[in-house]
Specification:
Largest sheet: 8 strands, mixed
Structural class: alpha/beta
CATH superfamily of the largest domain: Alanine racemase
CATH class of the largest domain: Alpha Beta
Order of helices and strands: HEHEHEHHEHEHEHEHEHEHEEHEEEEE
Bound molecules: pyridoxal-5'-phosphate
Helix content: 25-40%
Number of helices: 12
Number of strands: 16
Length: 380
């Protein structure tokens, strides 16, 4: 998306504006497919649950990782008109409920769809056996998240040493464990995390087999990094290492799944905001814009992500701070941006802000989330 298009859209639709480019979604999806030919792509809906994004991945033949009933229904909207048999097949084959902890109400609602769900502890097995006995299971393992931008291993994941016993426990409860899953942490730039996790899983597959359990699938989760800057390794490099290990350790009949989210959507959205105030504090020029960390820039807080603020105007740059519109001092987008001298009413924009942004935007302080618009929704 070039500057001219962004500016024209901001003038036409107003700000704050969140612009999703569906050509970029399709490009990222194709790139993932190209580099991971063996892997079935389950888009992680939480990363940006906009129904139009889900539809574009659906149209591409994508599968989905959902983690709440609302996300499940967002995907289900696309299949509700299919004949019952086809719809059921889609749910079996293309949806994973990848939240290891599920409320009883959710399990009761899920049971009739017979989905694949993740679990990582004994209590969850008891709940699933009682309230969703038709679900298939994937055991989520705790794996190294070293160096990933967002750590995901402290909350979920069975220890490798407990894995086979947890498979046995589920079996004894009358459930079927289809395979294993893990997550190396979001924005993982350290291939070693994948390598170690895949090796760990191969050992558990082996041990399970000796105990009479034939696991059929391996879900390698998310973690695939967005190219926020030049330090991020190329997906081709990462894929080479991951594919090598998958092919070395898992025969062709083992299904491999992945749950990329950030990789697919981060670069597909840009945000444009307007300068609504300006002040000099402690010798620093401070800009106040009409979008902030309670809104599109929520990733600053929840995703540990930094977004560059860029100007459409040129001029000598100086160190500035950029704040959001609410009364909370936490609403700070950046304390160190290089921006030229701008006027109230001028626009700023950020690129690559499609992941964990609009998804966690709030109405705090009476400021609604940015308007979302979609471009290139139809294939060319
Ligand atoms: C179970 C699961 N799968 C996939 C994802 C998406 O991962 P990523 O942000 O690395 O794309 C997440 C993110 O939290 C997750 O929890």
């Amino acid at each position: 998306m070039n500057q001219k298009t962004l500016l024209a859209l901001a003038k036409k639709h107003g700000t704050p504006l969140f612009i999703v480019d569906h050509n970029e979604l399709r490009k990222n999806y194709a790139l993932f497919r190209k580099h991971f030919p063996r892997v079935q792509i389950y888009y992680a809906v939480k990363v940006n649950s906009d129904p139009a994004i889900v539809k574009t991945f659906y149209d591409l033949g994508g599968s989905f990782d959902v983690a709440s009933m609302q996300e499940f229904h967002t995907v289900h909207e696309n299949i509700k008109k299919l004949p019952a048999k086809k719809r059921q097949h889609f749910i079996w084959d293309k949806i994973i409920y990848a939240n290891p902890i599920k409320p009883i109400e959710t399990l009761r609602e899920l049971d009739r769809y017979k989905p694949l769900v993740t679990y990582d502890n004994h209590e969850e097995v008891k709940k699933i056996a009682k309230h969703a006995p038709h679900a298939g299971l994937a055991l989520r393992l705790r794996v190294p998240n070293t160096g990933s931008m967002v750590e995901l291993s402290s909350k979920f994941g069975a220890l490798p040493g407990e894995a086979v016993d947890l498979i046995q426990y589920a079996h004894d409860a009358g459930l079927v464990v289809e395979g294993l899953s893990f997550h190396v942490g979001s924005q993982c730039t350290n291939p070693e995390n994948y390598i170690q996790a895949i090796l760990l899983c191969a050992n558990i597959f082996h041990e399970s087999r000796t105990r009479g359990f034939n696991l059929k699938l391996l879900d390698i989760g998310g973690g695939f990094p967005a190219a926020y800057d030049s330090s991020v390794p190329k997906v081709s490099e990462l894929a080479k290492k991951i594919n090598h290990e998958l092919n070395r350790l898992f025969p062709k009949d083992i299904e491999i799944l992945a749950e990329p989210g950030r990789f697919l959507v981060a670069s597909a959205a840009h945000a444009v905001s307007k300068i609504i105030g300006k002040a000099v504090r402690n010798d620093k020029l401070c800009y106040y814009v009409n979008d902030g960390v309670y809104h599109t820039y929520s990733g600053v807080i929840f995703d540990h992500c930094r977004y560059r603020m860029k100007s459409f105007k040129r001029g000598k740059k100086r160190l500035c701070a950029v704040f959001g519109p609410t009364c909370d001092a936490l609403d700070t987008i950046s304390l160190a941006e290089q921006l030229p001298d701008l006027e109230i009413g001028d626009y700023l924009y950020s690129e690559d802000i499609g992941a964990y942004s609009a998804a966690s935007s709030t109405h705090f302080n009476g400021f609604p989330p940015a308007k979302v618009i979609h471009i290139n929704q139809q294939t060319l």
